[in-house]
């Protein structure tokens, strides 16, 4: 989407007017020139520099306490019994044998509540019961001692099977068909007409499998409730404030009586909002046992019941004229989100087509519902359309970058394409796919993405300066591993002319100031403005107290820099200055400032790979990602986000994908052995480039945009290297070898 | 994992008697198990694929962790020798380079630090149907090999039926190529078994097992004879993911060259393509008396894959393995592929 600068802040003033012949004052809105501002991006003392992560040491040394590490005294271990059937009616759950195992302290079953409607499980992995025991091993043994009688029903785990005439129904409800229309836009007949006038037409289908979030820390909570009026829930969540309400409901407490703690959490990528079924079960177990329950999903649970990035199946017919103009594009887009709706950005995504038509559907299967995952729907759409653009360009015999520029209106993409091409050495690429002597072929490709981001008014931040000179910033927000702690400190330190080490942050606690959930790359753009506002207010409050000591200088004219406070021709050290504060110190309460956040970003990725055409191995050589982002709060963290985005894209392009057995209705790779995340040996040279030509003085999130364009870039590089166009991810050696074989047969 | 009895014998004899005296079990996967490095056994126990009533810890037995001998006298590897020891051993790297390469190709450094020679040979299949607790396949007492008509990209193209697993060991193809034997101790004493006879096809032995070892027997030692081809041995493993993976396909090759650079004898054993290490005698024969050049390498590669019977999703293993055969022979013979 287009770059958007912050809206100018408005203020209300009263002006005299004559209303009905009477002089009166009315309120009008004018631009507020005194808006809080970041100032030019290249004039910061700390922000927009490379700041090492403040929690880096405790994380790499193992000292950081994640939710998984919590061990309240008397704690029990919870485990979940999953349905082994993809579709079945639960007739009976008999947990008597499990309850008899020494060390088992609580068992909850889906059939406990006689008032509840019968349970029909809709995917293999759906929880049916849960156990809390003194050790995880006892809990696992107890799960297997629970006898469940199922009436097995027919299942569907493949989109192709689900759309078949006469296929069984995924949902019992007649209002929920297997295939649900989602969106429709454009005029199909105009597209068909325009295709007739095209010089080249490409008709192709692209598929992406279901992808797993694969967070380092699985979903889960440690629910510390021992009876009584209060509870603490340690949660691995993207939304500290989504926890107390959910937990309170399960525990039968008031929301305010439940405290959520998220000191450190091991990633979520969009899958961790609310307490989840695992949290509800943990609460029920804790309530029953009157003891804290540690219920973190096992890795296998995580694959089977903790959500996923929906798969996609996209069919195109597109045409271009000889000069490279995309004149027509017809797209049918299926989202494969299991029980969920899935997500997919609409085609032709970022491209301008003179005539475009699309229709979108969700195809349901008996698999756990998709959840948001880092830029929901975008990598799928980008991979497909970038492959399609490449196919058109090659068919026209046109340079793939030039073809893209021809069909992209936004100038930001043009400059980013130029920069990326320069960095990767686009001129060196294979002019003819598959050309070159020997079995090792090099190739390059590119891809493009967009994201919105933006912030909202949910964060309440306190910055407190104490009389001893210590400074703290407090807000309940969570750090997903993205570096929230570091920039929170840095903003305050810069405002007060201090160093990062001089500020302490307190986050991850629902007793602190409220904050938004981390979704849609909105955390930084929501939180940073509130922190800045609190820091400015704290600075002015300190300045007000110091004014008499600094020759009566106006508070807003007193400067804070290099650990000193100056005004009226005098300078005080920070310690001296703070000594003048009241015993309780001073606190600035910050709220969101629209003037400090922006939205709308562009990203371009280039990839170079080497393909061994005798084994099908793809070796990534180099990836370059160019990204606009407004004001980068911490360049090191932004680059780290971009590296992570490139790595996750690489996994999606070359290795990852859920594999289901159609007959059994089971996932065959619910673990890191067969669900293959890339490791250290798979890493190419990663070059994250912040597009500093974006001079917006505004904070914009970069978590999601950085995962979008690389998937298509890698796929296009593989084609450029070896001449095989793999249209179904992941691009594994078997597909390349069989592709080469069929090309040879065809030739 | 299911609760079990843990015993730590001090001698091989004691270990054998503890295996033998374990309470009888209904199912072969509940029988007592010896534990060496535990890198495979523990994963099968955690997934309830095996549920041994007793686990016999071998790590307290002295003398099973030694590497002895060299290229002239032959090599003796105690069953508890770790894969890390094998890959780092100077004599093995010099005289049996293929064996050091095979050990190095396994998993990760952490696993190789614990995983043992004996355990590597006795590890269970990686077939994802076998590894899935919910899928009761023919290897676990069910009646069907789900891979036969299911998702079989990683399964066998040789020797399949009624199960299409592939043997996961990297050491096994190389040791078979080098003519190794295993010494096995049981209640009736010791016996030596040529490794080639140790592994069993699903159509020959018990469908629930991958080798001839009985429940109360242990591998105590692997012996590798001195041979004129050991010094020209190599192991090429193709993994889908280089960082950590089992073989999609692998080739253990060893050649003896005459002064005229012609092949006197060759050993070619394929891994990752059959339920056992798959020796290809026709290709070995073909090379005798030939110089290793593009033509003979291609010929051997073609013959090595002759008779392959791919399933619906694994025909790619044929061209892939042909490449590996060519490259492995070229590397062993010191020529370019």
SS-based class of chain A? alpha+beta
Q: In total, how many beta strands of chain A?
A: 30
Q: How many distinct folded domains of chain A? A: 3
CATH-defined superfamily of the largest domain in chain A: Aldehyde oxidase/xanthine dehydrogenase, molybdopterin binding domain
Question: What is the element string of chain B, with H for helices and E for strands?
Answer: EHEHEEEHHHHHHHEEHEEEEEHHH
Largest interface: A-B, 36 and 32 residues
Work out the strand percent of chain B. Answer: 15-25%
Whole-angstrom Rg of chain B: 20 Å
The proportion of strand residues of chain A reads 25-35%
Regions with little confidence, pLDDT below 50 for 5+ residues of chain B: none
Characterize the main sheet of chain B: 5 strands, antiparallel
- Give the CA-CA distance, first to last residue of chain A: 43 Å
Helix content of chain B: 25-40%
| Major beta sheet summary of chain A | 7 strands, mixed
- What's the rounded overall pLDDT mean of chain A? 95
Q: Please report the number of helical segments of chain B.
A: 13
- CATH architecture term of the domain at 236-333 in chain B: 2-Layer Sandwich
Shape of chain A: globular
Please tally the helical runs of chain A, counting DSSP H or I stretches of 4 or more residues. Answer: 17
Structural class category of chain B: alpha+beta
Kindly identify the CATH topology of the largest domain in chain A: Aldehyde Oxidoreductase, domain 4
Provide tags for this entry.
heterodimer; A: 747 residues; alpha+beta; Aldehyde Oxidoreductase, domain 3; Aldehyde Oxidoreductase, domain 4; 3 domains; seven-stranded mixed sheet; five-stranded mixed sheet; 17 helices; globular; B: 337 residues; Enolase-like, domain 1; five-stranded antiparallel sheet; four-stranded antiparallel sheet
Task: Give a short synopsis of this structure.
The complex is a heterodimer of chains A (747) and B (337). With 747 residues, chain A is an alpha+beta fold.
